[in-house]
Amino acid sequence: MAEMKVAPANASAGVKLLTWVDNRFPATKLWKEHLSEYYAPKNFNFWYFFGSLALLVLVIQIVTGIFLVMHYKPDAAQAFASVEYIMRDVPWGWLVRYMHSTGASAFFIVVYMHMFRGFLYGSYRKPRELVWIFGCAIFLCLMGEAFMGYLLPWGQMSYWGAQVIVNLFSAIPFVGPDLSLMIRGDYVVSDATLNRFFSFHVIAIPLILLGLVVAHVIALHEVGSNNPDGVEIKAKKDAQGIPLDGIPFHPYYTVHDLLGVVGFLILFSAVVFFAPEMGGYFLESNNFIPADSLKTPPHIAPVWYFTPFYSMLRATTDDMMKVFDVLLIVATLLALWKGKFSGMAKSVIVVVALVVLTGFGLFKGTNIPALAGCDAKFWGVLVMGGSVVILFFMPWLDQSPVKSIRYRPAWHKAVYGVFVATFLILGYLGIEPPDPLKTAMSQIGTVLYFGFFLLMPWWSQMGTFKPVPDRVVFHAH
Amino acid sequence: MSESVVVHDGIDESKRRWVAITCGAGAVAGVATAVPFVSTFAPSERAKAAGAAVEVDISDLKAGEKKTVEWRGQPVWIVRRTPEMIASLSKDTAELADPDSKRNPDEQTPPYARNEHRSIKPEVLVVVGICTHLGCSPGDKFTEGAQPSLPADWPGGWLCPCHGSTFDMAGRVFKNKPAPDNLRVPPHMYVAGNDNKLVIGEDANNKG
Asked: Is pLDDT of B207 > 70?
């Protein structure tokens, strides 16, 4: 046991109490390590608001969620009515519910900005790989949380959205149909599905989410925050071992982040009070109709934050598979021609490429059952899953010699611009009803999206990089 | 950040072996305990029991009309096709992914529906109204010709609102659409001696 510390005889009651606690629990130690003596770079900008805002939204969601559960009924016969009851009869219930529904969209806006910050300044690069990976896992959990939460109001969009996403799993060869049956707990989306989604939404995923958030912050505080210059501030320390460009998180960034919180809450309140449905983007109009298992609404689309990924799912048609065939053949030929592999490795590449091409259905025309390949439906599911999973690999895909966009060649900014535009256009297309032109656009978007990531090991090294300064660039206000 | 090599030495092999054995035994117990919990995800006995056949009277169904009945929680469509609708079925075969219902016939098409019109009687179509892509229920687009989200030579059929799959008046899927299979024809039969009474969920080969 550590030695018992003793407060001075003339110390105040507060100091004596804290000393008593510190001898039994590391309260002061934790406070120092994570706040008052956690040194963050002094050159944080606008983009650094979103980490603390994500934490704020998480708290909003948990608190409003606790109060919603007091009035909500997870029962297919009562769920829709209980949500309307919260909206009309529970005192201030409408506010709690609108805060929760707006909070879901706000969470994704904040998290997308937070991730984009990572893209801009290379915050996922060594030694922050695990910070990034925990973050991606948080993003996956959020998607699960949002999807399952959306079933709970038991409206038409809830019902058919769940039907589509659960059926995605049935596209997996061999185990798929049984897997989607296990997820639903019934042959159709039903009361059993609603109950288990409720359980996951209010207990299972929030617990995992909280654990991951703790891991994300601990990993961050172990390695220290990155900054807009991508300079390691720990490389230059003063005599006390404090980074020269670091300032204590508390009070500097706690106060700084309060400014962000105020700005955020102004916008958040404006939506909650004046546009909680956000023109059908935050709460879709079809969800004000109770679930009907016999009739799909004429236009169904996921909530906006899923639409970029959903567009890529829709883009994967039989024609798209032919594009994938060509791209894979070109990639294989390039690997054989340009790649510095041994003869053994090259033959492995050829075999793998042939197996995947068979899976793509390139040899479907031969009418040999073993060469039939998988449906475009399966590859669509894989494309959608892959579009999220590929984020986990960012630390290794990015081979640029500098972290921050500030010191990259100017045309890298254009590449990022195209990527952001692609993501937004895919998001727009996912909301729209399908038609041939829009499908073609989303197919081009899918190729650009994956091209950005899969070609990153090459393009991120190309061009003339600017010299990175030793210290962060900082102009006092 | 400085890097240094982490060294482990002085390993007691005997203790290490027992630790490994204990962990292995613990893992077996853990997996065994997980089995009942994972099993609770499967459909309950009550869910399995629900699914009886449904009897439908179609005497009030006029030519060109559709009736929807619920069978195992899913919509089943019964359409009395007009002669023009039946005629369209032989014209669009080049555009279809699987005109002769050869894919997964055991799941999608019972033997008595493996024909051009995918039905027992040419005019009466019985299909499960659930898209074979991701399970939305397609919308009726019985009017021929150009209209939003459909080609100019549209012969009439269904359009799935979710991902744009299209089906003809026999529930056969068009080429190059996300849905891989034709709409499922459920087991069904006519009540003996009554052309207007259908039983959905049962046929001569499969009683319930």
From this structure: no
Residues in chain A, overall count: 477
> Cα angle vertex B44, ends B41, B48, to 5°?
125
Nearest residue to B174 via CA among B97, B102, B100, B115? B97
- Contact flag A377-B180 (C-beta cutoff 8 Å): yes
The Cα of B14 is separated from the nearest Cα of chain A by a number of Å equal to 30
Q: What is the pTM of this model?
A: 0.90
Could you tell me which of A309, A307, A311, A302 has the C-alpha nearest to residue A284?
A302
Interchain pair B44, A192: CB under 8 A:
yes
For residue B128 the two structure tokens come to 């499960």
Q: Which of A1-10, A150-159, A444-453, B186-195 has the lowest mean pLDDT?
A: A1-10
What residues of chain A lie within 8 A of the CB of B134, using their CB?
Answer: 163-165, 167-168, 377
Stretch A280-294: mean pLDDT? 91
Pick the residue with more confidence: B176 or B129?
A: B129
B161 vs A186, A300, A377: nearest CB: A300
CB contact under 8 A, B41 and A188: no
CA pair distance A215, A138, nearest whole angstrom: 10
B41 at interface of A, judged by CB pairs closer than 8 A: yes
pLDDT of A1 above 50: yes
Whether the CB of A295 is below 8 Å from some CB of chain B: the reply is yes
Please, what sign has the CA dihedral across residues B199, B143, B178, A300?
negative
> Does A199 contact B at CB distance below 8 Å?
no
Burial bucket for residue A246 (CB in 10 Å: 0-12, 13-18, 19+): buried
The reply to whether residue B136 touches residue A163, judged by beta carbons under 8 angstroms, is yes
Given this model, what pLDDT does residue B208 score?
Answer: 44
pLDDT tens per residue across span A162-175? 998 898 888 888 89
Residue indicated by tokens 């209980």: A82
User: Residue A298: CB partners within 8 Å, gap ≥ 6?
Assistant: B139, B161
CB pairs under 8 A between A and B: 108
Mean pLDDT of A45-52: 96
The verdict on A196 touching B (C-beta cutoff 8 Å) is yes
Quick one: which of A376, A347, A340 has its CA closest to A359?
A376
Per residue in B29-48, pLDDT (tens digit) is 999 999 999 999 999 988 88
User: Between chains, do A295 and B148 touch, taking CB under 8 Å as contact?
Assistant: no
The answer to whether the CB atoms of A296 and B138 lie below 8 A apart is: yes
Q: How far is B81 from chain A (nearest CA, A)?
A: 21
- Predicted pLDDT of residue A341: 83
Nearest residue in A to B178, CA atom: A317
> What pLDDT does B205 receive?
66
Residue A89: per-residue pLDDT: 97
Beta strands in B6-63 (DSSP E): 54-57
| Interface membership of A237 toward B (CB under 8 Å) | no
CA angle A191, A79, A166 (to 5 degrees): 45
- Here the ipTM equals 0.82
Q: According to the model, what pLDDT value does residue A436 have?
A: 83
The nearest CA of chain A is from the CA of B121 a distance in Å of 25
| Token pair of A183 as six digits | 């997820």
